[in-house]
Amino acid sequence: MGAYILRRLLLIIPTLIGIMVVNFTLTQFVPGGPIEQVIARMEGSGDVFSGISGGGSSGAAEFESSGNPGGYSGARGLPPEFIAELEREFGFDKPPLERFLTMMWNYIRFDFGESYFRSISVVDLVLEKMPVSISLGLWSTLIAYLVSIPLGIRKAVNDGTTFDTWTSALIIVAYAIPGFLFAILLLVLFAGGSYFQWFPLRGLTSDNWDQLSLLGKIGDYFWHIALPVTASTISAFATLTILTKNSFLDEIKKQYVTTAKAKGLKESQVLYGHVFRNAMLIIVAGFPAVFIGVFFGGSIIIETIFSLDGLGRLGFEAAVARDYPVIFGTLFFFGLIGLVVGILSDLMYVFVDPRIDFETREG
pTM value? Predict the structure, then answer.
């Protein structure tokens, strides 16, 4: 197993480099690059020159460049020295290859630079947004598992019964409802839209958070995340429930289950002593990947509807503004975590079922 883990760890390096090369190359051809974003901002603001005159990172925080000197639409009337200063401020006066190598060298040292527009380092910016994403990702995943696994097991045991039929209908309806539409419905019903005002409309905590007691802070936190987590979870548990049911059905029909019943074991002993471990292998082992997927792929729409400033909105806003340090820094960091989580998922398989040997399978 050690050799397998070592090979997977070594594969992270070329995979991560490949991800960065593809995305860096694509950004060189995307229309409406950072310099044009700057020019558009200049057309709506009269104090741009004062922003640049500050120099350094504080002045740089107001501008961007795409490394396409001399060809910027809307740059007419701007002095060439000003455009050249923009390029120098952000390093776009250098060839793309040199910029890429410099960026990767900094990322290897976990130096992700500073956002162009926010005057804050990428690391601090991600840490600032992370509580929202952790809240949505962690609780949505836990609730989905806590609901789906027992429900899927009961549906498998009662396959074809009335219970199985009506719960399947509910699951299909829940899966068919878009998360953002359900979020709007929750707001209208329970957040002061037209009926009840039981839950807050925005934010992760109340304005008087610092003045609350420990129990008050816990209650206030769950009060705020109740609706967004519900909206995030409503369709997520459908797939997991069906997967759990099908996994248990496959195992229940196997010969070892019939043998265990013939030996006089109770149904609960057969179900949880023999079937559970085999049926839950794919579900439990996939938990790290599911959590990371929900965590880093936070719903932009749900965050927007509930006025939550998380990683989903951060990524979207950075892409629109061509905030390259945020885009590439988070891409590198999250890509690295995603690759490591892939290895952890394989280890979970071995933990759940020690009979699995990846080295033998590869051989």
Answer: 0.70
